Hints:
Elements: E1 3-5, E2 8-9, E3 24-30, E4 36-44, E5 50-55, E6 58-60, E7 66-72, E8 81-85, E9 88-91, E10 94-95, E11 99-103, E12 111-119, E13 125-126, E14 136-140, E15 143-149, E16 152-154, E17 160-165, E18 176-179, E19 183-186, E20 189-191, E21 195-199, E22 207-214, E23 225-226, E24 230-234, E25 238-243, E26 246-248, E27 253-260, E28 271-274, E29 277-285, E30 288-293, E31 302-307, E32 320-325, E33 330-334, H1 339-346, E34 354-358, H2 366-372, E35 392-396, E36 401-407, E37 415-424, E38 428-433, E39 436-438, E40 444-450, E41 461-465, E42 468-476, E43 479-483, E44 492-499, E45 504-515, E46 519-524, E47 528-529, E48 536-542, E49 550-557, E50 571-577, E51 579-582, E52 585-589, H3 609-612, E53 616-623, E54 626-636, E55 640-645, E56 648-650, E57 656-662, E58 671-674, E59 677-681, E60 683-686, E61 689-693, E62 704-711, E63 725-729, E64 734-738, E65 751-754, H4 756-766, E66 773-778, E67 781-783, E68 789-795, E69 803-807, E70 811-814, E71 816-819, E72 822-826, E73 836-843, E74 848-857
Parallel strand pairs: 6-14, 15-23, 16-24, 26-37, 38-45, 39-45, 47-54, 56-63, 67-74
Antiparallel strand pairs: 1-2, 3-4, 5-7, 7-11, 8-9, 8-12, 10-11, 12-13, 12-14, 15-17, 17-21, 18-19, 18-22, 20-21, 22-24, 25-27, 27-30, 28-29, 28-36, 29-30, 31-32, 32-33, 34-35, 36-37, 38-40, 40-43, 41-42, 41-44, 42-43, 44-45, 46-48, 48-52, 49-50, 49-53, 51-52, 53-54, 55-57, 57-61, 58-59, 58-62, ...
Amino acid sequence: MPLASDYEVECVSPNHQHLGETPAVYIDISLNGVDFFASGLSFQYTNQPLIYSMAPEYGPVSGGNTIVINGKSLDFSQDNLLCNFGDTQTMASSVLESKITCIAPASTKHGIVPFRIASGDTNVTLDRYHDYTVIQYTYLPPLIVSSVYPSFGSMSGGTLLSITVIEVIPNVDELYCVFEGNMTTVALSISNRSLVSCLTPRSNTSGSISIGLAQDKSAKPTLLTTSNVQFRYTTDPTINGLYPCRGSSNSETNITLKGSSLLQGDIDSVVCKIGGYELPATFLSDEEVKCTAPPDIPTREIQAITVMGSSEDGSSSQDSFTIGFKDDVSDPISIDSSADEMRELLALLGLDDISVSIEDESSLDKTFLVTFLGMVQDHQPLITVEQTTVDVFIDRRQSLCCNVSLSLNGGVDFYDTDLVFVYHDKVVVTGITPIHGSTNGGTKVELSMSGISFSSGRTNALCIFGSVEIQGMWMDGETISCVSPASLDDATVAVGVKFSDSGVRAESMAIFTYHYEPEILSIFPLSLPALHASKALDVCGNHFYESELMICVFDISLPSEGGGVSSEDRLATYRQLATFHNSSHIQCPSPPSLQSFFSIIDQSWASNSTLVGGSKLSISLESGADNYYIGTIPFHALVETTSLFPETGGRKGGTEVVVEGINMMNTTHLTCQFGSVVSPLAQYISPTKVLCITPHYPDGYGRAVVPIQVALNGVDFSLVANDVMFEYHEPLILKDVDPMASLPMGGSTINVALDDESMGFSAVRERSPDMIVVSHLDPPYGPKSGGNVVTIVGHGFTANHATSCSFGGVTIITASFVSEESLSCVAPQSVEDDMLVDVVISVDNGDDLIGGQYMYLPIKL
């Protein structure tokens, strides 16, 4: 034992394994090998530490992944245990007797480095496994994701992704796909060490996320990749329409799928699936996709059904039977299989037109026949057999009905639908456009065909409307055009096609409805302001019908010169769906103004009669392929009011008021409006003056100031002007006049005092809750045929009072209570030639109230 110095001695501990324990022993010192001196110091023997495994043995050069070392007696140092990755040390993050945990440090290069565990307070170093093999750790090179296919998929998850990396993927124990840093799914396959396949997890939100590969599935996965490639979650599209839904088993059929949100990526990545066949599709819009159904998709025709098998004693068994097909393929099926399972096996979804012949009918239970035709409930036994072999032969009269689905990302995700495309062997007219037209004939229609297509030898197509044949013409491979013949009445007929060159006659799934041509009697209003036009034009006549294809066509024309508008820009056409009310009344909503021709910011042009005068709006009714002229009405410059006289009047109405302004015109429907109350028709005086009669204003006490507005067409009133306000007052009651007499030459000053108290009492009394007051009618016009609802506006109405409306004192209509402020009456048909009639509201308490004047349309064009 050498002496290190006068103060230190180096000793080598003896072998202590034979004791079978790991005790703490005291250290005694002797200088002569005989006499030992007790030092009071102890030495602890421990078991030999061993390493059994390390996982993982690899990681990215960025480090940060957790390494777990398993073994025994690994807690030989609790405070200073180091993990060495090559030349880089890191403190163990956890130390147990059988497990040590380390966090791998980053490395400047990839490759294999030696790994060892060392203690700072002991000389123990572990760099081998228990079998003496050297422990090594591999730094993996960074993997770069170059592409992801498809680049988008459903929020529902389940999209099969193909992730391509530039570097060779290392041979790791398990690989995970990582979505947005924390959602992980196990990789399904690795091809050529550069292509990884995995399924996307479900996502609660749409949008783009990052994609990566990791070696673990912890809360914070260790990424092996770097990438700017992203995957986009999309909302599922809606697919709710298929046209046509039938096609020929002998030729291709162009079909259109309809829905919404159909554009989610590349328009070339849309794929249709009909049955089990994937077909390229043509993207038309966000709401339509077109694809071509091939001729009848091959199906496996049944040749025979053979029951086979035996029990333990050798007798026949009924445990299963075999379906034999013409392609020599046999499929066993359990006798207890459900009807749905049977139909799926036979690929006969939707099959309802087949013929079954049985070699020995007595040997086959009738239950099977019913089941085979798809007429039993699920889970019902299919077949009962009394002998070993039964042959059932199938004659397929109708082909397979195929489910239709759609993929927007190249055929990876298919969105299933309830839509079914049916193949058939018949020639069928599947549709017609438009579906209605005039009894006079002449409507150009297009027929969609299925089961036959155009060829150079097939030219003689005859369209059949009911029993009338008319020459048709092929437009393309699946469309025939023809012109409807005349009809004696408004009837609905089937439309078919006959081919005279082949004798083939198409069955019809299309109908055409004849209508009498609409008769236009009037339009209202008869003119429109240059700006802020009416909400709707009322068109009255006969033979209107409800149709989604009925459209109002507006053609605007400006005067030939002036206004700074070029000649080629003086015409414009607008279309708007018509609103159908009844057979004698339709509306053309939202008629256009002249706004599109002039400035939006400076709208002074709208009041310039020289500039807008002569502008016209021509209106016609477009119904499918037919067009009916309604009439032409002029535009007029905006009316502006500037002053009025007198400025006050009684609430009872009847005051003549002269309103001054610009652009006044002598029109049939010149009208004034006081507040919200429309007065009787106004009287034209000059281009700057009109005479208005104040209407009755609801009784009350105190000032009531309202604006006066003027309309040239009865509906489009001038804008409110602050200087043109009319003040209503209550009836005047005199209290005192002083003096009561004066000299006849005049000139005396007379003081008149009003009785405010009596006036106030009278006003309050007249506004008592039991008092019914009518303000105005809304609308104050309607068609001569009647039938439209007119609202009587006022106050004091109750549900307890029986009220009625009289239009022109001829027809009495029961009024319906709406609220305390309104009643409603249905206008009767006009029985006189009067254009304007008084509407009288009668109450069962004996009151007859004038509701206002009602204007009957039409006015002859």
